[in-house]
TrEMBL record:
Pfam families associated with the record: RMD1-3 (PF21033)
Protein species of origin: Herpetotheres cachinnans
Residue spans of biased composition, Polar residues class: 88-102
Keywords: Coiled coil, Cytoplasm, Cytoskeleton, Membrane, Mitochondrion, Mitochondrion outer membrane, Nucleus, Transmembrane, Transmembrane helix
Highest classification ranks of the organism: Eukaryota, Metazoa, Chordata, Craniata, Vertebrata
Name recorded for this polypeptide: Regulator of microtubule dynamics protein 3
């Protein structure tokens, strides 16, 4: 045993005498043996406790998730019967793909969100605030549990537990958002509110963020108030800028950034609109490079080419004064892009076919213009832009009939 003997001076030499007696040494050894056994048992108990806490953390995450989903189901069951009885569009943030009729008499709140007409303004606002509060608390609870459980579950188990539940919930949310985006104005409002109320949980997901930006673009188109249009476009542009900082290789992020820049520039000076035109073209080109089979990007590029080919004298002079190389594009460039849209997705939009007719008319090919006017007439009016194209179609017909 170390340090149990000490030197004792005896004449000119040194002898060693024990510091502890034999019995004391035996007692020390027994105590050390007892400590070692207790440490081993404690280590075993800690390992068992760790395993138990891992399972407990997984159960807590699952229970919180189930509670959130059940709360949403209860809210839907509570609100849908009333909305069907009142024959109005659903204002629930949990609007599903199989429910909700088009609302032809919508009221709009100060924030630009359409509400149902069944109750008083106070009741509607209180109900929305209550639901939003419940969602935010529930989402924050899930996040808290996730943070607290990270130290208890190893990295692989954390991904299995959290990623699977996140992906499942996100997948359902995105599918619902896409359905609402393709619906009427009331459904677009529902989609916008749905995404806003889930931003806390999914703000770090690429596919969520560009859809949130898209929903801002939808709201910009729907509202008639100029200030609200600017606000929606500006807020959406900020959302997609955040996404582009992390996901520069996302075609959708570049596409919707270009769209929102264009919407925002509609409320700005000629100088700003021309400057935005360069940005728009840059991001649409990038979107096509990343996803060359997306007809929407070619449609947007076709519109840009057509607008540039029809720039007025003042706009051309302004562009020449501001930039060394003003934007250039021809009607033929626009036509090729619109025809590419039809090649990728025949009947992509009524507006696209009307643009093809306009391009042929500008190029002097009247027979082709008439053909595409007739083809455009076969398609339904699905968007506000389609409605504007329908009016252009009628004007073109009336001019030729004269």
């Amino acid at each position: 045993v170390p340090r149990l003997l000490a030197p004792v001076e005896v004449g000119d030499g040194a002898a060693y005498a024990p510091l502890l007696t034999h019995n004391e040494q035996v007692d020390v050894l027994e105590r050390l043996d007892f400590v070692v056994r207790n440490i081993a048992e404690l280590r075993k108990e800690v390992e068992e406790l760790r395993n138990s806490l891992q399972h407990l953390a997984a159960e807590i995450v699952g229970e919180v998730r189930s509670h959130l989903e059940e709360t949403q189901k209860v809210t839907r069951r509570r609100r849908f019967p009333r909305e069907r009885r009142d024959s109005t569009g659903s204002s629930s943030i949990y609007f599903t793909a199989s429910s909700g009729a088009a609302n032809t008499d919508d009221g709009e709140s100060e924030g630009g969100y359409t509400t149902a007409n069944a109750e008083s303004d106070y009741d509607r606002e209180s109900e929305r605030e209550s639901e939003e509060g419940e969602d935010e608390v529930s989402c924050e609870t899930v996040r808290t549990v996730r943070r607290d459980s990270l130290d208890l579950v190893n990295e692989d188990e954390t991904h299995l537990i959290l990623d699977s539940s996140l992906e499942e919930g996100l997948g359902q949310l995105l599918q619902q958002a896409d359905h609402l985006h393709n619906g009427d104005e009331q459904e677009k409002r529902e989609g916008f509110q749905l995404l806003l109320n889930n931003k806390l949980a999914y703000a770090d997901q690429k596919d969520f963020l560009w859809r949130l930006a898209r929903a801002h673009s939808d709201m910009c188109e729907i509202t008639e108030d100029a200030d609200e249009k600017r606000s929606y476009a500006s807020d959406g542009k900020e959302e997609i800028e955040i996404a582009l900082q992390k996901w520069d290789q996302s075609a959708e992020c570049h596409q919707w950034y270009a769209i929102l820049c264009g919407q925002l520039s509609e409320h700005e000076s000629i100088q700003k609109r021309i400057q935005t035109g360069y940005v728009f073209k840059e991001h649409i080109d990038k979107a096509i490079e990343l996803k060359p089979e997306d007809p929407k990007s070619y449609y947007l590029l076709g519109r840009w080419c057509y607008q540039v080919s029809h720039l007025g004298w003042l706009e051309k002079k302004t562009a020449s004064a501001l930039f060394e190389a003003p934007p250039t594009a021809t009607v033929q460039d626009a036509l090729q892009n619109f025809l590419r849209v039809e090649e990728l997705s025949p009947g992509f939009s009524k507006a696209g076919r009307v643009y093809i007719a306009k391009c042929y008319k500008d190029l002097g090919n009247n027979s082709a213009a008439v053909l595409w006017m007739n083809l455009a007439s076969e398609l339904p009016v699905n968007t506000k832009e389609d409605a504007e194209s329908e009016r252009e179609l009628e004007e073109m017909r009336s001019v030729w009939e004269e």
